[in-house]
Amino acid sequence: MIIENKLTVGGEVGNGLKKPRTYKIDEVLEHFGSIGKFQIRLVLIGSILAAIAAWRILFDLFGAKNNFSWSCTSEGLFYGCKFEEGKMPCAVEANADLESRLRSGEIEGMDKNAVGAGLFWEFDKETADHSIRSTMMLSCSDDWKFSFASSIYFIGAFFGVWMFGSLSDMLGRRITCMISLGMCIGQAWIIPFFNNITVYLACRFFDGAAFGGFFLIAFVLEVEYAPPKYRNRVGSAFHFITSVGMATVAIWGVIFKPWKAYAIALAIPPTIMLPVCYFLLPESARYYLGKGDDQSALTMLQKVADVNGKTIPAGCQLYEEVDEKTGVRDLLKRLSNGLLIRCALINMFGWFMTSLVYYMLWFSAKSLAGDIYVNAAILGIAEIPGRAVAFVLMDKIGRKFTFMGSIGVGCVCMFVSIHDNPVSRKVMYCIGKAVSAALWAVIYLYSSEMYPTKIRNLGSGIGSAAARVAALIAPFIGDWLEVSPIVPYILVGVLAIVCSGIFMFVPETSGKDLPQTLEDFELLFEDKKDKGEDEQL
To answer: For 467-506, what is each residue's pLDDT tens digit?
Structure first.
């Protein structure tokens, strides 16, 4: 069922006042002109949240990094402990076998419940506290849990985007953002005070779930309050800061090398942002209007006008066509529309391939030897040019053609990086990182512009969930490279080409109003030329 929400703004007709006219939210935002203080403040809040999300994603990079400063104990040397440069103790086959003999009771006079760490090998005292790996004293059979920490983060993100996507469309963007941020804060303060791998994995799961909330919601809010012609700038600024966050995580690692200090330092920013969001983060006017709360929607637009020093048009009526219901059930109901289900599936595949190409390029970075902190900074900085190019191209040639071209270039870079040439591999990897960053910028903005308001957050969340599935698969494809260094890249490359091709069947959203209803969504398929001729008539 469709409801028409109308609310008069600016007084009654007569006494010299203008005749009432209906305005959509985008038209009111365009009336205000360029981006003002309200949008700038929102972009600043969103940018800080984006940086926090980037730091949390890469937490394991330094918190649970490999610590190669170790040596065999005298007892370990007696029983056959071996040291190999550039490897962790359990990565050395002789040491894993030695601990296996211990746990099976083959070594007499020793507790078979003991572990090799601290008994057969020990970490340098000056660097032992620099990583969770060298302080938890896990057995070699449990060493995989550290690698699983990154995977479980994306499992949490998979559930988080579904849960918080639904909540934000039901409860509102603002309250859902604060709930997810509170979840991030809670687990962030637990990690440094519980030296337990099970607790650590549980916290990383909830960390990922929280990311699926506040990161996506902050982006959607920025886009919803931006005038149509400025959405690209707002969206690009958000992703620029994400890349800056990826690069600056190395600074946190250099300053706070003990992992507990590092964990505490990264827990402080989200803690500070929670009260900031409580007092300064606005609710979406579109959310209010979608819920039928016309007065609250108008109040939010009036706040935008007041902060920006603008006025709402005299005699204006706020008008939108909105659907009554929201939620997963209603999303499935809307998907009975052939156009929407086609675009939703293609959009999900776009998210999936964006993530898969990104992490496949990540796993091809084995040639980037050297200091881990310098490498992390380079990888983050390499993404910035890609986002800059995407910013220009999205307005010049449109969202979907920018996506199609970017994933094509990323595919080429992935193929070239197969060749065992250190120089070309490094160059292609950096270009690939830039291109994959462009893909993220496009797919986030495109998803926020394609879906109708009542399912915008949920639709984007489903796409983001597809990306998390790809992030889980990518490490296993990386392991496949040890068996065949060519087939995995060919497989992903072919999928990337298919993804680029099917994006021809989705609408262009550049320069168009955000769809409020299913009917508005269908209008995205109208040719701009035909639309212009209709307006002239």
So the answer is: 888 887 776 775 565 556 677 778 888 888 899 899 988 8
Reduced DSSP (H G I as helix, E B as strand, rest coil) percent helix, strand, coil of the chain, to 5: 70, 5, 25
Residue 385's contacts (CB-CB under 8 Å, 6 or more residues apart) are 434
E runs forming strands in 480-534: none
Cβ contacts of 242 within 8 Å, gap of 6 or more: 50, 51, 53, 54, 440
Contact (CB, 8 A) for 283 and 172:
yes
CA angle (356, 447, 226) in 5-degree steps:
130
Q: Which residues pair with 155 in a beta bridge?
A: none
Taking residue 1's Cβ as centre, other Cβ atoms within 10 Å add up to: 6
Report d(CA 52, CA 269) in Å as an integer: 7
User: Which band of pLDDT confidence, cut at 50, 70 and 90, is reported for residue 365?
Assistant: low
3-state secondary structure of 151: helix
Contact criterion met (CB below 8 Å) for 442 and 388? no
Gap between the Cα atoms of 200 and 207, Å rounded: 10
* Closest C-alpha among 341, 332, 337, 333 to residue 506: 341
Q: Do residues 236 and 387 lie in contact, with contact meaning Cβ atoms separated by under 8 Å?
A: yes
Beta bridge partner(s), residue 4: 321
Residue 58 scores a pLDDT above 70: yes
- Residues with Cβ within 8 Å of residue 473, at least 6 apart in sequence: 356
Q: What pTM did the predictor assign?
A: 0.77
Distance CA 393, CA 401 (A): 9
To which residue do tokens 């293609």 refer?
A: 346
User: What is the CB-side half-sphere exposure of residue 60 using CA atoms within 13 A?
Assistant: 19
Q: For residues 424 and 440, give the distance between their C-alpha atoms in angstroms, rounded to a whole number.
A: 24
8 Å CB contact between 140 and 100? yes
Strand partners of residue 72: 121
Q: What stretch of H or E contains 316? A: strand 316-323
The strand ranges marked E within 130-277 are: none
CA-based radius of gyration for the chain: 26
Residues 6+ apart with CB under 8 A from 360: 414, 474, 477, 478, 488, 489, 492
d(CA 185, CA 190): 9
CB atoms within 10 A of CB 118: 12
